């Protein structure tokens, strides 16, 4: 069985990773989103097990010590992490999987799973990114300032990724990512072969 593709979608805070991923999941039904674990309080529209698995800081630290995470990071005073076992099981079964994670987490995953396909989602401009962060209306001015500072640092990490996609329009960005997945599935090193060869060796 050909292993599934692990797709890392990352980028600065406020760039619209979640929105692009939701659209992509609608147009590519076979694709699944890995649900992260976080200590951040749920937002009004978020549900347990859909957007995140919500837990306490003490429980999260226990999971770190147990080696449960493929990647984890402390972002704006809250922990975020991806459970290793579930990701590896899904990939082994042939399932294509999205990891929607921050820049810190993406670096950890690339080190552990080098064959992962990493995509850096960038804003059309710095001004657009600042407007998205300040326009959420869910956080106090101090936290917004820290998010802006972090986002500026995270933008410099784009050069470590396989692909760069600008999120000027959600549909356009999602379509580009969909095309990247199609191209990756044609790679010979991923198991692509001409029809009729079956399991024959070269």
Report on this model:
The chain is built from 7 helices and 9 strands. It is an alpha/beta fold and 202 residues long. It has a single domain, classed as 3-Layer(aba) Sandwich (Rossmann fold), CATH 3.40.50. The strands form 2 sheets. The chain has a 5-stranded parallel beta sheet, with helices on both faces. A hairpin with a 2-residue loop joins strand 5 and strand 6. The longest helix is centred in the last third of the chain and has 16 residues. The chain is globular.
In brief:
With 202 residues, the chain is an alpha/beta fold. The chain is built from 7 helices and 9 strands, in the order βαβββαββαβαβααβα.
Tell me the strand order in the biggest sheet: 2-7-1-8-9
* Radius of gyration from the alpha-carbon trace, in angstroms: 18 Å
Strand content: 15-25%
Which segments are poorly predicted (pLDDT under 50) over 5 or more consecutive residues? none
CATH homologous superfamily?
A: P-loop containing nucleotide triphosphate hydrolases
């Amino acid at each position: 069985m050909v292993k599934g593709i692990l797709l890392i979608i990352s980028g600065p805070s406020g760039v619209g990773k979640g929105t692009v991923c939701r659209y992509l999941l609608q147009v590519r039904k076979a694709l699944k989103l890995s649900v992260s674990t976080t200590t951040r309080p749920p937002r009004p529209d978020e549900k347990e097990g859909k957007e995140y698995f919500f837990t306490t800081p003490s429980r999260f630290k226990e999971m770190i010590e147990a080696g449960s995470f493929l990647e984890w990071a402390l972002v704006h005073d809250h922990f975020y992490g991806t459970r290793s076992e579930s990701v590896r099981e899904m990939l082994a079964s042939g399932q294509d999987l999205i990891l929607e994670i921050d820049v810190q987490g993406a670096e950890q995953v690339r080190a552990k799973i080098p064959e992962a396909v990493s995509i850096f989602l960038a804003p059309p401009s710095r001004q657009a990114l600042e407007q998205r962060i300040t326009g959420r209306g869910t956080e106090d001015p101090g936290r917004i300032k820290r998010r802006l500072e972090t986002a500026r640092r995270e933008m410099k990490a784009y050069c470590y990724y396989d692909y760069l996609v600008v999120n000027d329009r959600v549909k356009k960005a999602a379509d580009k990512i969909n095309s990247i997945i199609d191209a990756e599935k044609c790679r010979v090193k991923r198991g692509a072969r001409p029809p009729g060869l079956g399991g024959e060796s070269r």
